[in-house]
Amino acid sequence: MRTHHNTDCPDEIWGADALAFDQAHLWHPYAPMTDPVPRWPVVCAEGVRLKLADGRELIDGMASWWAVIHGYNHPSLNRAAQDQIQRMAHVMFGGLTHMPAVELGRRLVALTPEPLEKIFLCDSGSVSVEVAIKMAIQYWQARGRPGKRRLLALQGAYHGDTFAAMSVCDPVTGMHHLFEGVVPKQLFASRPQCRFGDPWEPSDIADFAHLIEAHEDSLAAVILEPIAQGAGGMWFYHAEYLRQVRTLCDAHDVLLVADEIATGFGRTGRLFACEHAGIVPDMLCLGKALTGGYLTLAATLTTAEVAETISRGEPGCFMHGPTFMANPLACAVAAASIDLLLAYDWQAKVRSIESQMRMELAPCAALATVREVRVLGAIGVVETHAPVDLPTLMTRFVEAGVWLRPFGHLVYMMPPYVIDPANLSVLTGAVRCVLSEAAG
């Protein structure tokens, strides 16, 4: 694993006019156009470091929204992309196929538990959730039960920004009020309160059990993020809750969708977070780290029973087909990324990151502004009592030589797995220092 600094970058001209154009015309995610938040131009990246146009280097604690698990500019992934682009960058998947899709499919079937064996390759995490929701609805239509079309999700959830995905995000902290009357109305169970690793409290499943029993005739599926809720709150909950959900879905004839877009490929210490509970969903959504952060690609896996039922129903196929579905370039890199992950003891590396973050973030709990510190796998979270001042904290982190993007009440890190202890200490030290300053 490489963690060395990037010192040489290809020439790239980045003047004040380029940044001014960016601020005037390029709409960044979750940012206003009227009063743009600070932006820092990146000219190249390698290992765990981003090099800015002004020459500064930042240790990336975000893995570019949790996707770049192997670090930047990795020679194995570069080679996979270069080899594939010499053959073809893209070809339509409708009526044609190609070896990168086959090779990626073989790896996904081998990695995931039975009976997950049918793979729909799509563009992004949000789309993989849309696909799972559409699969669930078409499945019940094909079963002659068209009334089963609603979803049951958890409070505190985040599943994406497209409309169906948005509908199963937390109804309060999500965007439901902005799209009232357009976003489908779904059901939400209370967020699990039993923490991961703590004693199990049977009453924790009561609200979920009540809702699935009361609405089983209208529910197509349950969707949740196994063990670790991500952008909805970085909340880690008990594995028994997940086991209970699986049992209740079976008892009430409801499909279970596991959104492992953020948790898949080792982030929680297991290859997939469902493994903490020993359960298998009816559909599994993957994305983010699937390509090691190189290209956008996602997958929705399901069972032969679901796929064959949909295919026997009207209109005889699954009604979804993205233009760039199974993009060969992305599939080739994804297969190489999986091989790279499995080639070393990633579990030991994640355990080491977890142990170091747990120790080095612990002092933050003594700050009056901090509500809680929690760590699971390669996820470290400091939750504050009040919402953070995003522009100020981001600026201070850059000044400290790290890249972190807090949100809401959360200052968190999900570094690349290749980060070494020294660079990780710089990240955790910056969090302690910046939050101490903010606390006064």
Summarize the structure.
With 440 residues, this protein is an alpha/beta fold.
Describe this protein's structure.
There is one protein chain. This protein is an alpha/beta fold and 440 residues long. The chain has two domains: 16-73 and 345-439, Aspartate Aminotransferase, domain 1; 80-342, Aspartate Aminotransferase, domain 2. Helix content is 35%, strand content 16%. It is built from 13 helices and 16 strands. The strands form four sheets. It has a seven-stranded mixed β-sheet, with helices on both faces. Helix 3 runs antiparallel to helix 10 (328-342), helix 4 (99-111) runs parallel beside helix 10 (328-342) and helix 11 packs parallel to helix 13. The longest helix is centred in the last third of the chain and has 19 residues, at 421-439. The chain is globular.
